[in-house]
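Task: complex structure prediction.
Instruction: return structure tokens for all chains below.
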Amino acid sequence: MAGVWSWVTTGDHKRIGILYGVSAFVFLLVGGIEALLIRLQLAGPQQTLVGARAFNALFTMHGTTMVFLAVMPANAAFFNYIVPLMLGARDVAFPRLNALSYWIFLFGALFLHASFLVGAPPDIGWFGYANLTSKQFTPGPSADFWILSLLVLGVSSMIAAVNFIVTILNMRAPGMTLMRMPVFVWMTLVVQFLIVLAFPPVTVGLVFLLFDRFFGTHFYDVAAGGDLHLWQHLFWIFGHPEVYILILPALGIVSEVLPTFARKPLFGAPVVIYSGVLIGFFGFGVWSHHMFAAGMGPIADAAFSVATMLIAIPTGIKIFNWLATLWGGALRLTTAMLFAVGLIGLFTLGGLSGIMHASPPVDLQQTDTYFVVAHFHYVLIGGSLFGLFAGVYYWWPKITGRLLDERLGKLHFWVLGVGFNVAFFPQHYLGAVGMPRRIYTYPAGAGWGFWNLVSTVGAFGIALGVLLFMVNAWRSLRAGAPAPADPWDGRTLEWRTSSPPPVHDFDEIPLVYGRDTFWREKHGPRREAPPAPVDDSSSLRLAPRLALQPGVCAPVAVSVATGFADGSIGSTSGYPHDEICGLKKIDQIMLQGHDDTRPQCRPY
Amino acid sequence: MLGHPPPRARFALAAVAAAAGGCAWDGPMTTVVPGSDFAREILHVYGIITWASVGIALVVFVGLAWVLLRFREKPGGALPVQTRGHTLLELAWTIAPALVLLVIAIPTIQVIFRTQASPSPQALHVTVLGRQWWWEFRYPALGVVTANELHLPAGRPVALTLEGPDVIHSFWVPRLGGKRDVVPGRLNRLTLVPDTPGEYWGQCAEFCGTSHANMGLRVVVEAPDAFERWVAAQRATPAEPAGAAAEGKAIYARSACVGCHTIRGVSAGVLGPDLTTFGSRRMLGAGLLPNTPDTLAAWLKDPAAIKPGVKMPALGLSDAEARAVAAYLLGLK
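Output:
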């Protein structure tokens, strides 16, 4: 089975993982280009490369794209490809549902970007604070595209989360108790629970907003008694766990990469697991630290401040346990290892600046400034992206059956690392001297020009780093050296099968008798006795050969959102939308005889 | 070896030193040169956390550098000892950060409550209204209304009540302290004592739509007697204009201007800034441009060209008319 059709109808977790990965990378490039335009506009004071509205759309789409369309699906790529292999399973629990979540994600992403086609990209910020999102202050369809696509993407994430919870709890190889699961699988499990618990609040918030905009309700209408803090609470109850949804998979990847290349077990693995669980748990109790400037009063400020500081403890434990993993090891500084070690350093800096604005008084000077921009880029690039690249270099041979060029990879690491720090370290300074976020221009007299220019230069360094990765990937796919099954002398089960694995993953389901079973099979000692083989019929499950429904269902489901947006496009003011009047026409024909008060299309 | 860095390293060190020297910390929007008790309190906590962070960062980076230099794989070397953990060590690096956090949390909580205490009875009350995309300041006890330029007396407590008639904004004058959101439907408060006379820059810090970037303000902190003189000038009825300014007043009175702006004795619009003492303001368009005849004439002809999305329409004035209105408005002091 080959060709495009085989990808559309696939139910194989490995192929779906690749689909997620490629899509995420494409959207990383889209969000990256948006970032470069932002940086060019800010390279000096009073620049006129883009106007105010375009700039507002750029940072909104950059944030939304990077969070929902780049990092989350990149994480999903590894969940899909690696987790079943690490579990010693033949696929996920619900392969067709798995395909459905990918296709819904893809169509949701395309739907969001369709806003560019009608000239109305969202320009309300990725956090979409009410009441700026109301019809009164954002009349066009731009906010509708944002609301509807986030709802669609939420469906995709929820489906996938349930699927992976069931998979991880039920599809483990015989002998793999929960505490014997690799840390990456553990972090995946925690993230799925975060998704299941965090997406409903934001969905509620978005539905309120949708109803306000389409059906005249008043959830965020102050004149009718609405409370604007409601949106902020609903958004951040989602938004803060979302940060851990973005970062925990990277921390899981690093917890696999470091032991492999230190040739030592993860130091204190249970503590690393518990600390990940605790981060996820505390993550639900700190959302209001995004609202210290909102005026919640001193008691709420103090409570959320202390809760936020508590998160630093499990995070610190992870850092120290990783250092202890390296201590006394026999380090192999491969590209994957460099990215993992880079994460330790950069994520530490991001964590420390995070502690600074865990203190409300300090946060009142830092929130909504470039200090915060620097902080979360250290977490999301220095943390998530570095972790993801560590994962890419680590598992590329397993996925493609070919090796990446290590010299080019190391160049990629250094260019990206230097570019990143040049781009974002100066932003701490810019924030400290008062540069606010989300401004498309700034006066020369503010004294922010020079370090903004430096930051822009650094941003192009990041772009060059990503370009080097593309060259490396291209060369590897065309003519890379074939990869053996276990190129790194790995510790977990995915290295026990061929590179790339067969459709059914394992010819024989492995038996697990402890942490790092595969390593012990190679290097000994086999301290614990292997359990008796279990007749586990679920592990014999094969991927469905043809999963046609998801590829059909997803666009149909997303077309509901299109219907909403079409209606709102008809009622806009000030945006030229004649190009899609074909759709409007159909709509009008179907509404004949009904009282349609919306503006009519101009005749062709 | 560390004593004699190679030439390249020496160059890098010089570059770093130059770069650090190139950072001016006293810009107009700086958060680290306080001009009020509020800003000083914040800086105190800021300092504690910064030093704690630097300490922790040093521990991690030195540790990281040490393991990276010390524990490389050697060709033909034996497998390292397969250590799986050490309970005491792990307890130690759970407890140590908790203690550091205690050092941060205690002053944090003290400052939270100190800076959000109720205002003193002698406080000067000012109502701040954040609007798309300008600021209105009302002094209820003094009967003064102004826009985009807040005057405060040095040494006297100020209680700012923040009101939002449209969307959420955030009032922020970094050298006078932290920001506070202006939330429609809520009355937020900010209390502080400005202690050093001078001109302070401020800026809306919550994204509020198209011209969010162009929503600046100035705070002028002055000695109490100078502040009294300013109040008196604000309350005086503007003198009747003469010459070009008189013509400007006539144009103003017959144009759309009167629908939105107040000039005491001339018009009573409420959608735009009160212009009664417009000529006394330093900046035009919410901290956007210096308030001069040229910039003002250009603004009057096409405000949206200067400030995207601005609610003020182009009035269709000729060059001469715009200059006349500018002369009138700048004469209002």
